[in-house]
Structure formats: structure tokens, C-alpha cells
Amino acid sequence: MNSRLTGVGVGPGDPELVTVKGVNALRAAEVVVVPVMDTGERGRAEATVLHYVPAEKVVRVVFALNERTDRKRRETAWDAAGERVAGLLRERGSVAFATIGDPNVYSTFTYLAQTVGELVPGVVVETVPGITAMQDLAARSGAVLTEGTEPLTLVPVTAGSAVLKEALAGPGTVVAYKFGRRAGEVAEALRETGRLDDAVWGSALGLPEESVRSAAEMDGTPLPYLSTLIAPPRRADGRGGKL
């Protein structure tokens, strides 16, 4: 039988938001890999996974999760992580990789799957979708992501504030990920485009340290790295006005 690598989305932090299919995939795998920046830490994905599988089944694998400037260091870390997971697949046959959010949305799983696919011929790669931070924030804040014909634009602020400003100048709702360290620039972009008053941001969703607030409260102080912003368009046309 071919070995199997499954990327499982475990949501933004609240263990109750892991899908039934996700839980079944975690339990069915021989090993559950969780990404960390240091083997001594417990990341958000691992904390969620431990609600459903025993600790002895979980293996921490180091990734250069935030490395953006040193390409050599980043790729060396990817190669090492791929080798580690490939070894687990050869030994155990089935590995689940737990990732916060969804494995197909800005996830480390994408790079891991590419690497492992080259190292383990015939490996079956599949994904189980997870609840994203923007969905959870919309639910917790009451923000509506889309109505009628509105588009939805997702922007990682690590791509630069110019990309965010371009999106905010367009139609529909804009969601920004990973903006915490550039909160001042984000607040200014919202102000310039007239979207500040209706926007909301949140971090640590579903966790004890959760914060969900109006974007108008941002004062330029850096926020947690994994912060999410929802900036809806103005909806002044009444019920069904965007149809």
C-alpha cells in the first residue's frame, strides 16, 4: 500500500471548531506532525490536536515558519522537515500534518507536501479543510463577509501595505492576515480608504487571551502576529442592496 500524508486544518485555535472529518483523520493516522519554530515549544496546532489524540502520537517538526529574508535558511529548514516526515512515512505508513486554519490557505503544508512528494515516490497526499480565522472572526464579531455580488479579497500584509491599500480601494470585503506587526500602517490604510469605522480585528480566537475589537481602537501599537482584520464595504442600500 502507498503511504499517505494528510494535511488537516484544525481551525484558528478553538478545539470545538475542528471538523468531525478532521478529528477522524487525526485519529486514523499513525503519527500526527505539528509544526513548531523550536522543538521545546507547544504551538497552537499542537494544543488543538491534544484535545483529540494522545501526546505520544504527536511529533514536533521544526519549520522556519517566519523566515522571509534568509532563503537558504528557510529552504534548509524545509528540506530537513521534509526528510523527517518522509522518514515517518516510511516507518509508519500514514502521517497527518496538523495546521491552523486550512491546509490550502497560506499553510506550511503546501511546501511540506511538495518536498515529501519528491522524497517518497507514490505517496498519496490529501487535505481535510479547516475553519479559517476570517470565518471565526466574522462569527465572533458579527461582521458579514460577503453579500450578493460582493467580491472577497484576502491579503497577507507580509506582502506589503501597498497590496492592502490597493485591495481596500476596490469593492467588497477585504480580509488581512498576519498584520499585527504593521498595525499602524494598516490603521492608516483603513483611514485613507474610509473603511476604519466598520472594520474589526481579532487575535487568539477561541483561546483565553482572545481579543476582538473595532479597528478604530488601533493606535499603532504592534498586535499579535497572527491577527486577522475584516474590512467590509459600506452597505447603505438596505436589505438585498448588493444583489
UniProtKB/TrEMBL annotation:
<comment type="pathway">
    <text>Cofactor biosynthesis; adenosylcobalamin biosynthesis.</text>
</comment>
<dbReference type="InterPro" id="IPR000878">
    <property type="entry name" value="4pyrrol_Mease"/>
</dbReference>
<dbReference type="GO" id="GO:0032259">
    <property type="term" value="P:methylation"/>
</dbReference>
<dbReference type="GO" id="GO:0030788">
    <property type="term" value="F:precorrin-2 C20-methyltransferase activity"/>
</dbReference>
<protein>
    <submittedName>
        <fullName>Precorrin-2 C(20)-methyltransferase</fullName>
        <ecNumber>2.1.1.130</ecNumber>
    </submittedName>
</protein>
<dbReference type="InterPro" id="IPR006364">
    <property type="entry name" value="CobI/CbiL/CobIJ_dom"/>
</dbReference>
<dbReference type="InterPro" id="IPR035996">
    <property type="entry name" value="4pyrrol_Methylase_sf"/>
</dbReference>
<keyword id="KW-0489">Methyltransferase</keyword>
<dbReference type="InterPro" id="IPR012382">
    <property type="entry name" value="CobI/CbiL"/>
</dbReference>
<keyword id="KW-0808">Transferase</keyword>
<keyword id="KW-0169">Cobalamin biosynthesis</keyword>
<comment type="similarity">
    <text>Belongs to the precorrin methyltransferase family.</text>
</comment>
<dbReference type="InterPro" id="IPR014777">
    <property type="entry name" value="4pyrrole_Mease_sub1"/>
</dbReference>
<feature type="domain" description="Tetrapyrrole methylase">
    <location>
        <begin position="4"/>
        <end position="213"/>
    </location>
</feature>
<keyword id="KW-0949">S-adenosyl-L-methionine</keyword>
<dbReference type="InterPro" id="IPR014776">
    <property type="entry name" value="4pyrrole_Mease_sub2"/>
</dbReference>
<dbReference type="Pfam" id="PF00590">
    <property type="entry name" value="TP_methylase"/>
</dbReference>
